[in-house]
Amino acid sequence: METEGQMIQRVMPDLMGLKNILVLNDEAHHCYREKPDADEEEDLKGEERKEAEKNNEAARLWISGLEMVNRKLGVARVIDLSATPFFLSGSGYAEGTLFPWTMSDFSLMDAIECGIVKLPRVPVRDKRAGYEAKQSFPQMILENLKAAGVQQAHKEDRITFTALTPWPGDLVCAEGRYLEGEMDKRAAIFIGPEFGTVQRADLVAAAREAGDSGFDVLIACAFNYEAHATEFSKLGRIPVLKARMNADLHMAEDLKTTSKANLFVIFGEPDITLLPESDGKLRVKVNGVDVFKPQTGEVISDGADGIACWFIDTDYNEESFFVRHAYFLGANDPYSALKTTLKAEIDADAWATLNSDISRPFENPKSGRIAVKVINHLGDEVMKVFKV
Predict the structure, then answer these.
(1) CB 311 within 8 A of CB 326
(2) Which of 28, 32, 25 is nearest to 78 (CA)?
(3) What pLDDT is recorded for position 11?
């Protein structure tokens, strides 16, 4: 029978004689054993059960091999990399539960925006005879937009379309009609790219087109907006509403069983006050979020209660947002929830500096700009840039 040393010599001879090995687990959601006390049967059947058993067996082999390497050579650290850092079906844990050791969440959209990942290009389906035409991305978005409407900060602020029809524009692809009181309103619909970020210039051009065509409002739908687009809310008489699309829309075929209540959300702009300090430093106070009410056409300030957390990049370089300050307002006593989650006592004084709508003091940025990112309780986020 092969010993552990012989196995390492056979499979990984280059590691022999090394110490303090660093392990990078790519696709780390496939690297861990199932929960020891989990029910073997669970609720999986047929192909799903076979797939779970296959995944679990591969994970057992991998983690057993790492443990062997650790015993014989020593593993200094294991770093997990995964686009889906959560437990899989059949692992014995609740499917979709985030790995508790997750340290950084950097999405594909963030990577594309920062230029780390190339913008994916989707090949065009062959439309010759004999090939079935697939529903296009804009068609899929419009279908879901008609069914879901557009949700804002308050439930009563939902825009529900009475009609949504294609429009032969350059950037405006559909005409949406909705009631504002008893008055019929026409909305120009602009849809951003399936993969990528909407720029401020895109919104300006779409708003100009909407005004030339006699629309009352422009509703932009996108997965992500670049920072300077956040500040753009009106062109002449045309209000510009920026709806952030839920990432679930990337999985359109599975949306039949998914709630449509939060597919298109307009979060508004953060209401921020800059507070100069006597020593030349700055503080930031987040007052809430400015929300456009379609029923009245007014912009109102919603309080900080609607904010789950907010972050500051105290020296924004206009390319990437770096979290240098983080604050958690939360709701329903987040301090208690944090203690329960971590199963530990939290330093109340230290927590008080994080559970605040006023930041700690910081130096004036060398770049001349700061950026503030605000996230609500639904996970929708918006960012605003300030020159200081």
Answers:
(1) yes
(2) 25
(3) 84
340-366 pLDDT, tens digit per residue, is: 666 667 677 777 778 888 999 999 999
Question: What is the dihedral sign for C-alpha 33, 36, 37, 39?
Answer: positive
Q: Helix-strand-coil percent breakdown of the chain, rounded to 5? A: 30, 30, 40
pLDDT for the residue 341 = 66
* Residue 206 and residue 191 in contact, taking contact as beta carbons nearer than 8 Å: no
Distances (CA, A) of 59 to 10, 35, 65, 95, 182: 20, 12, 10, 16, 60
Structural domains of the chain in order of their starting residue, each with its CATH number: 4-105 (no CATH), 137-266 (3.40.1350), 269-387 (2.60.40)
Determine contact, residues 176/148, Cβ cutoff 8 Å.
Answer: no
3-state DSSP assignment of residue 342? helix
- The DSSP output letter for 65 is H
Q: Is the dihedral of CA 279, 282, 283, 286 positive or negative?
A: positive
Structure tokens at 364: 């004036």
Q: Are 199 and 171 in contact (CB under 8 A)?
A: no
Q: Is the pTM of this model over 0.90?
A: no
Which helix (H) or strand (E) covers residue 38, if one does?
none
Secondary structure of residue 45 in the 3-state scheme: coil
